[in-house]
Amino acid sequence: MDIGLPVTSSCSREHQKIYQEWFALADSDGDGRITGNDAIRFFGMSKLTRPELKQVWAISDSKRQGFLGFNEFIIAMQLITLGQAGNEITADILNNIDIQSLKPPQMDGLDVLLAKNRPSPKKNALDLDVAPPAQVLSSVQWFNSKSTKKIPLSSVTSIIDGLKRLYMDKLKPLEATYHFNEFVSPSLTNSDFDAKPMVMLLGQYSTGKTTFIKHLLRTSYPGAHIGPEPTTDRFVVVMSGPDERSIPGNTIAVQADMPFSGLTAFGTAFLSKFQCSQMPHPLLEQITFVDTPGVLSGEKQRTQRSYDFTGVTSWFAAKCDLILLLFDPHKLDISDEFKRVISSLRGHDDKIRVVLNKADQIDTQQLMRVYGALMWSLGKVLNTPEVMRVYIGSFNDKPVNEAAVGPIGKDLFEREQEDLLSDLKDVPKKACDRKINEFVKRARAAKIHAYIISHLKKEMPSMMGKAKAQQRLSDNLEDEFIKVQREHHLPAGDFPSVDHYREMLSGYNIDKFEKLKPKMIQVVDDMLGYDIPELLRNFRNPYE
Q1: What is the three-class DSSP state of 464?
Q2: Beta bridge partners of 203
Q3: GO MF terms on file (predicted)?
Q4: CATH for 189-398?
Q5: Which of 137, 196, 299, 531 is deepest in the core (most CB within 10 A)?
Q6: Ramachandran bin of 278, using left for φ above 0, alpha for ψ from -120 to 50, beta for the remaining angles
Q7: Burial class of 261 by CB neighbour count within 10 A (0 to 12, 13 to 18, 19+)
Q8: What are the residue ranges spanned by the domains of the chain?
Q9: What is the DSSP string of 417-442?
């Protein structure tokens, strides 16, 4: 199964050297990023029409980050070469030609500019495939710096950097004031914004989760175990790395450049069942996979797991871009624990895809009945009016068992596999949009949390009977939520779980909470209403 992501390494070394020099010239501020303004100046030398250059940018910046790195710049140059040769510039044109034979495009007046800039040592500082870290380092410093000096949003050079800036200046102060990081979600770090998109696989034991990852990678990852019994006994994050190795959970959770620091809240019992498997692989440069232990049934799940399994899956669900629920045609029953796990994915319905794996083990008639039974079971667990998308296939390295499914079944499996593959291809492309979406969701959740906390504070007496008042508020928390909802005209669906809040409140003194600070709420409202749209406008396709 080939994910078909563009690999720039197929460009010859000679051409890469040329592009390296061009990139250094086009990158006006030396931060390793070609912004829209840089592109307008440099790409204009190609003499392609504006609609053609619009298409070049759209294909090169497929992840919609608002800038081009060195790899994306090479793709843009290759597309310009094809455009100059009279080809129509389309998204799949580079898949259908020999990239090695593509020469650099003709750029009018470029030789004169290069001659002027060659003596400058700064312009030769760009190393191949490694963007200078000036801008990236500065965004790391935002999270570590104690300085209150605000950096203007106009100085950022990507959408993600803009979100980091907005978070530090406008959203984080609200979260800190009302303990959002303790009640709802830990504060975001630099690595949370920079993390590659993640795909999590969930399912009962022996539904083919680890085999599915092995099938996509076309090789096994370090520490992978496959068997009919519950073999994967830990959460394994499979990600890109310089060499093949496994890193223990306690180590990975404290690494500042990894987005897993929030998992320390689940304790050592969980971290001992968590590991990171790193290996060099082109697919892992685009996507990180999360392999999970098989969900057990009955008492085993509650008594034999020494950590909050449902809580951990919920934490990963919030971070992931896609969640694959795998089912086996011989194990369609959804255990109580699996039901709880699926319920914990509430709010992430748009990320869920269902995979009926190992479907070639049964004949067509049985498959039809199994599919019906699966949809019936899911309907009782997933409380959504829409029908969940189900992919049917056999996602392993063996050829489809045509004797069982027949030629029609084989054709169906191949088409379903292509559809799922297309979904996975879209994950890196939609990663930036997903981060914006999650950021806006977090801002809205932080606002509602601030309203709830300040409302509870307001309901407390100023002198006597504080303990009784706190108990009463905790007992009647659902009614208090309704009051907050009506007072501020908030949607009921955006409110958090009453039981979770009640449990969290038991460890706090409500009287110590902050009163409502309308200015802080207004700052977040302005961020949602003006700053984020302005940020997206600044980093849209420069030729629009």
Answers
A1: coil
A2: 326
A3: calcium ion binding; GTP binding
A4: 3.40.50.300
A5: 531
A6: beta
A7: middle
A8: 13-113, 159-181+438-538, 189-398
A9: HHHHHHHHHHHHHHHHHHHHHHHHHH
